[in-house]
Amino acid sequence: MNEKSTQAVHDGSGEFNPSKATDGKFENQPLTTIIILTATSLMVMFLIALDRTIITTAIPGITDEFKSLSDIGWYGSGYLMTSGAFQLMFGKIYSMYSVKLVLLLSILLFEIGSAICGAAPSSIAFVIGRAVAGVGAAGILAGSVVTITRIVPLQKQPAMNGLLGAIFGIAIILGPLIGGALTSHTTWRWCFYINLPIGGVVMVVRAFTIKVPNSKTVSLSWNEKLWQLDPIGALCLVPGVICLWTDGRVIALLSVMSILLIAFVVVQICLPKTAMAPPRLFRQRSIGAGLWQMAFVGAGMYVIIYYLPVWFQAIKGDSAVKAGIKLLPLMVSMLKLGYYTPVRLIGFVIMSIGAGLFVLLEVNIGHAKWIGYQVVFGFGMGLSMHN
């Protein structure tokens, strides 16, 4: 790294601010680089989004093989919780180290997690694989955004981000269908094996074709870089989000989770210079409200899309493919509608009504009802989530 690239970057208070660190004016990239970047970004974004829902129609097959009905919640949560818990940490890591290297390692971690899931001999091993893949997915998601800001011209970044958002939505919708097809015609293990060749191709292409400019960093020692990563905040946040609550330890572990999350907030306020979640962001009501909104909407969404296919297969006797098809009314009705607040508030109400309607599901329920319930819930969620 040259001398210029190691100059300290400070804000007005004299503290190091990675978010303001740049390498200056990046030269325009050739068209081939943009095309390769776009194609590989779409491929990995499709994979990490697909992994969120592909398992929904495969869960009955997994529980039958492992005899682990009580672990259903962890098959989805293991991936989602680690993916969420490590997002902030990866944001700091990308500002301190090589963007290209960290992204490649994230893809490798995602691939390792997928391989563990595909070859899992037990339910515990499967959950561990999901958790490992979730950590990799967190790095991929953050790295894709960072790479775009470093390579794609500013005026084209909104279009690129929109394209990534579109492929993310498409993957989530197709997930139950692809998972159902693979489970019915091959084995549920292929829901994870399919990640390996695609991710491998992306790693090879990215490693040899794309150079990502890195942020300027100060000449810090490893110890100083470690503190910039906010280890105290991480130790509070990660266990607080992913701590296991099962059996008679539920109340105790939920209490520990609450204490750790409160401690995380306190650490972020007391140590703003190295905070993973700078308090100044939450002083903007729109950001704070948006985060709470996504937390509650996301929680409601994943409960339904993980357990409804199980109901179709276990209660209605449908195949995995048919369960995926029957989930389409919900997935399609989630599509972006393009309205803004106060429509968002109406969306919360409609989503709540739809969630309540699922209580009325019974063995002999008619098609019109279970389709209608999904449409109401999905429509409300779409209004709430995309505005």
Shape: globular
**CATH superfamily grouping of the largest domain:** MFS general substrate transporter like domains
CATH architecture of the largest domain: Up-down Bundle
Number of helices: 18
Total discrete domains: 2
Strand count, sense and barrel status of the largest sheet are:
none
As a whole number of angstroms, the C-alpha radius of gyration is: 22 Å
- Would you count the extended β strands for me? 0
- One letter per element, helices H and strands E, the order comes to HHHHHHHHHHHHHHHHHH
Helix content: over 70%
Mean pLDDT: 77
Structural class of the helix and strand makeup?
Answer: mainly alpha
The first-to-last residue Cα distance is 42 Å
Protein name: MFS general substrate transporter
Main location: membrane
GO molecular function: transmembrane transporter activity
Transmembrane segments: 30-50, 72-90, 102-121, 127-148, 160-181, 187-205, 251-271, 291-312, 337-361
Structural account:
- This protein has 2 domains: 22-215, Growth Hormone, Chain: A, CATH 1.20.1250; 278-387, no CATH class.
- The protein is globular, with a radius of gyration of 22 Å.
- With 387 residues, it is mostly helical.
- It starts with 30 loop residues before the first helix and ends with a helix.
- It has helices at 31-53, 59-66, 72-85, 87-96, 99-119, 123-151, 157-185, 190-193, 195-209, 222-228, 231-242, 250-270, 279-282, 285-314, 320-326, 328-333, 343-357, 367-385.
- The longest helix is centred in the last third of the chain and has 30 residues, at 285-314.
- The protein is built from 18 helices and no strands.
- Residues 1-27 have low confidence and may be disordered.
- Keywords: Membrane, Transmembrane, Transmembrane helix.
- It is found in: Membrane.
